[in-house]
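#structure-requests
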Amino acid sequence: MTEPYEAKHRPTLIQSYPVAAATKIFKGALVGVNASGYLVPMSHATANLLFVGIAEESVDNSTGANGDKRCNVAKSGSAVYADVAGATQADVGKTVNAFSDNEVQIGTFGLTNVYVVGTLVALEPTSTGASGLRVRIDTKVN
């Protein structure tokens, strides 16, 4: 460049996404976009998802069409999700995969589709007292 350019930069700590038709998203859910580009809850049973972050709010588009509602999504930070595969302290620093929108695991055993959602930073109980994993999403979010 030879002169300043106004790039309209927007920090992407929070980004709004259009929600898929017939979809309900809960605050705190791991979320991704489907092949059509609409926000859905993460699930290893759903093909062709791209992880985008953590829902900052609950949005009910269960009676709406694609994009009728939008949801704010956190693109950085860490959160605690239920551990479905029994991680140990030796797993800290390893890649974490989504099992559902509120369950994660180290490794790929039993997953139909593998979606990396972050890096394990600590073993920590969930808000309900279940065994949990604190997952840092910054390095894996799209």
